[in-house]
Specification:
The chain has helices at 8-21, 42-46, 60-63, 125-130, 144-147, and strands at 75-83, 88-100, 105-121, 158-175, 178-191, 194-211, 214-221, 226-230, 235-238, 241-252, 257-268, 291-292, 302-313, 317-324, 332-339, 343-351, 362-371. It is mostly beta strands. The chain has a 14-stranded antiparallel barrel with strand order 1-2-3-4-5-6-7-10-11-13-14-15-16-17. A hairpin with a 3-residue loop joins β13 (302-313) and β14 (317-324).
Length: 372
């Protein structure tokens, strides 16, 4: 029986894995809840987000909640990132509270926010320009000469914002040699006068030193599907995502150096295979994942491979590089970190998947961590 003990944590996920394999009566909405993608922490992004088997800091609340188990100190991680010349701002904050005990239980609390301000809404402007009282012809169509006068009525343009929030409560504990954990998350989105609300759960398992210095992890994100209910009466579904991963740490004592290599295979079940050339549409938005499983009879299943490498010198200065689902210029990530104990500062730079503007399509992420 002892030989089978290592399978026990995986059995916690088995019922949900079976549920995911059954036909889903409600089709998922591709890219719903996409603002939560890539979680938080500049260290993880610098390693290409291949962090499910690393998960050894406060960002584990997102990448693999099981990684919280065994963390000995309270910790706080805050992060800010900007895209497209500060047009899109994204923030991440995670707090970890060890509870101690034989099972080394740990709690976590996470907040993710994405904000886009000053969005012009011109829904009522066409009728204003078409109104004969304003020089229009009243034919119910916005003609070219009417549209040319738009700047005369720019004071009637309304500017609103897009605010997207996720709140997660995490719990993790040891289960023999394994670590298990999960999240309960609340999602709140508001775009102008419209809003949505949703609830979901994530599950994770992690095994440190499964073979020598090899760590293995598995995250089951949105395990039972996450449903977003909009005030417009429309509902969206966030499909489950399965993320297995491994990490291996080489230590070279004579050089006071360590090398951490990691990988993760983010697998989707909402038909992201696509038929768009090079995986991107006319607006540059990603239309297909890196790998398709349709050849094995799973037409709706696709995956992205994330790779990461971290070089740590004297456990003080870190250099990182990663591949975030491909090997094009927009897929490479780079980062650096400085461990000042108890403070830690990390920076990451990445090409942006949206690539809306090649001159500004980059992500800069800075995070600050403290343990106490």
């Amino acid at each position: 029986m002892r030989r089978l003990a290592f399978l026990r944590p995986i059995s916690y996920l088995l019922p949900l894995l079976l549920l995911m394999a059954l036909p889903n009566p409600a089709s998922a909405t591709k890219y719903a809840g996409a603002f939560m993608a890539d979680g938080g922490g500049a260290r993880a992004l610098g390693m290409g987000s291949a962090f499910v088997a690393v998960a050894d800091d406060a960002s584990a609340t997102f990448f693999n909640p099981a990684g919280l188990a065994g963390q000995e100190k309270r910790s706080l991680l805050i992060m800010h990132s900007e895209r497209f010349g500060k047009l899109i701002n994204r923030d991440f904050a995670a707090y970890v509270q060890p509870l101690g005990g034989e099972a080394e239980q740990t709690l976590g609390l996470t907040v993710i926010r994405l904000g886009l301000d000053n969005i012009p809404f011109t829904a009522d402007l066409a009728s204003v320009l078409d109104d004969p009282a304003n020089g229009g012809n009243g034919n119910g169509v916005l003609d070219d000469d009417e549209a040319a006068r738009i700047f005369q009525f720019r004071d009637q343009i309304q500017y609103k914002s897009d605010q997207e929030w996720a709140f997660m409560g995490s719990y993790a504990r040891k289960a023999g040699a394994w670590q298990v954990g999960g999240n309960i998350k609340l999602i709140r989105q508001s775009i102008a006068d419209y809003s949505s609300f949703g609830l979901g759960i994530d599950l994770g398992v992690l095994r440190r030193n499964w073979w020598k210095s090899l760590d293995v992890g598995l995250k089951f994100q949105d395990a039972t599907s996450t449903y977003l209910s909009w005030s417009t009466g429309t509902n969206e579904t966030i499909a489950p995502v399965l993320v297995p991963g491994v990490a291996y740490d080489w230590v070279i004592p004579s050089w006071n150096l360590s090398i951490l290599a990691s990988s993760a295979l983010e697998t989707h079940f909402d038909n992201r295979n696509g038929d768009i050339p090079e995986g991107r549409d006319a607006n540059g938005v990603s239309g297909a994942d890196q790998f398709s499983w349709s050849g094995l009879g799973m037409s709706s299943v696709s995956s992205n491979l994330y790779l990461g490498l971290e070089l740590s010198m004297s456990h003080r200065v870190d250099l990182r590089v990663g591949s975030h689902g491909g090997f094009g210029s927009e897929d490479w990530t780079f980062g650096a970190g400085l461990d000042l104990r108890p403070l830690r500062v990390d920076y990451a730079f990445a090409g942006d998947e949206l690539q809306l503007d090649s001159s500004s399509g980059f992500t800069h992420r800075v995070s600050l961590g403290v343990s106490f």
